Amino acid sequence: MKKISKSSLCTCVLAIGVYAQTPNPPPPDHPSVTVKGQTFTPRSILSRNMGTPQDQETAFPPHKIIGNIYYVGTKTLSSFLIVTPQGNILIDSTYERNVPVIKKSVERLGFNFSDIKILLGNHAHGDHQEGDAMIKELTGAQVIVMAEDVPALKAIKPGGKDHPIDKILHDGESVTLGGVTLVAHLTAGHTRGCTTWTMKVQDVGKTYDVVFGGSLRSPATLTPEVVDELNRSFKVVRSLPCDVPLGDHPAEYKLQEKYSKLQAGGPNPFIDKAGCLDEANIQEAMFDAIQAEQQKTGK
User: What are the residue boundaries of the structural domains of the chain, listed by start?
Assistant: First the structure.
């Protein structure tokens, strides 16, 4: 029998100990794709979107984006306020713990939180819609959701609260308040009912098409159903008229960079027709790479 040295035995025990402390090691971070000279992996995209726990809870300076559209979210979780003469619309409540942060941002802009009459969502994940019940309690807002996301939304129950659902929409239907109309486009794949919202906005005598992008991020494992959903969603997004691209995570539309330009003066940086498909290009490249990898491995 071959003798094992004390140093080898210690190394082996140490390795076992380390592994025991990480029962669920992170999956391999692949594939990687390069778009416009920047390389992305699944983990880097998630990190870009979510930031740190502190980023998720810290208000980004509330500001006017264009026309009657304002940003009231955190550093990494978007929330948009749309102001109308008959009350306001909020897109994405984010986490329940962020509702006071959003409320403060709304008030810093000079608006009343209680004037929120309609609450919409981007997709049924907690970082985007967990706060729906609390906002409903505080404002009485009508909660309007996409049909395909209803089961997932009903499972989001912070503190045991039932998730409020006042009206169910289907692909292509619209929501109107105070002369503002938002159209709901089903862009499924990330969730079954992921929704991209579009509207027109008036600013300095011109009309612009605004797209509140739904997440197009692929899951780690693609089923035939999800492949079909995402293929359709990329086509939908590419067909939408767009002058002002926005997203459910600020990094998706380069908020920090554009806000800095906004503060410096000059043309509105959020009017960015050339950048309307930047996020779709990144996510479709990753989607294609994940598909190719799965086909190669036979999964």
Answer: 28-297
Residue 205 corresponds to which tokens in the numbers above? 């005598």
User: What angle (nearest 5°) sits at the alpha carbon of residue 50, between those of residues 162 and 65?
Assistant: 90
- CA-CA distances (angstroms) from residue 75 to 102, 154, 215, 218? 12, 27, 17, 23
Q: What is the pLDDT of residues 25-45, one digit of tens each?
A: 666 789 999 999 999 999 999
Alpha-carbon distance of 173 to 145, in angstroms, equals 11
Distance CA 258, CA 158 (A): 34
pLDDT in tens, 107-146: 999 999 999 999 999 999 999 999 999 999 999 999 999 9
Report pLDDT digits (tens) over 70-81: 999 999 999 999
Q: Please name the residue that has the structure tokens 């939408």.
A: 240
Q: What are phi and psi of 43, to 5 degrees?
A: -70, -35
Tokens read off for 275: 């950048």
> Does domain 28-297 bear CATH number 3.40.50.11810?
no
Please tell me the pTM assigned to this model.
Answer: 0.90
CA nearest 243: which of 282, 204, 216? Answer: 204
Residue identified by tokens 């403060």 is 104
